[in-house]
Amino acid sequence: MLHILASNRNTIVTLTNMRVGPAKRTSVLQRRCLTSRTPDSLQFITVRTYRVSTGEGITYASSGNCKEKSNPRCTSYEGILSGTVDGVITLKKAAGVSSLVITGGTEVGHASGTYSHANGYKLDVRHSAGLDKYIKSTFTRIGNRDGFPQWKAKSGNTYCDEGTHWDITYF
To answer: Which domain of life is it from (predicted)?
Structure first.
């Protein structure tokens, strides 16, 4: 179990593998509030749990078929911020699509910066007809970033069409 403090929100995001049946595993993202910290332990109260699995329609894909943060061929959730988790779940529901595929998370190999993949603010999401239509018809086109078209939500979140996927920044 990984405990990562999202310092700008006083929450943490925990990535765990929970045993569901004799041999089944599912990824679970849990948002918890930090209630106290001692030198030997952290104590948390669970606020909300998100199942990021095929049952929720949000899955991951990676060329390496893995989730390790240190491998650029993986798709990692390690260190992702709770606001990013909330954002991608909200996006799926608002777009009315049956599924979203996350193709990039916090793994190494992305550009650096304050609002980066590594710092938990960004996700790459695979294109789909329904998602593309929703983003392009709902959000405001704001020009290009690195030659790629970009849209902005009223919330400030940005959606950059990088050709093979959406590069989404949640603020």
So the answer is: Eukaryota
Which domain does 60 fall in, by range?
Answer: 2-169
What pTM, to 2 d.p., does this model score? 0.70
d(CA 6, CA 85): 12
First to last CA, the chain: 26
Residue 80 burial class via C-beta count within 10 angstroms: exposed 0-12, middle 13-18, buried 19 and up? buried
User: Minimal CA–CA distance to 49: which of 7, 104, 12?
Assistant: 12
Averaged pLDDT in 10-residue chunks for the chain of 171 residues:
36 37 38 41 38 65 90 91 91 96 93 94 97 99 98 98 98 94
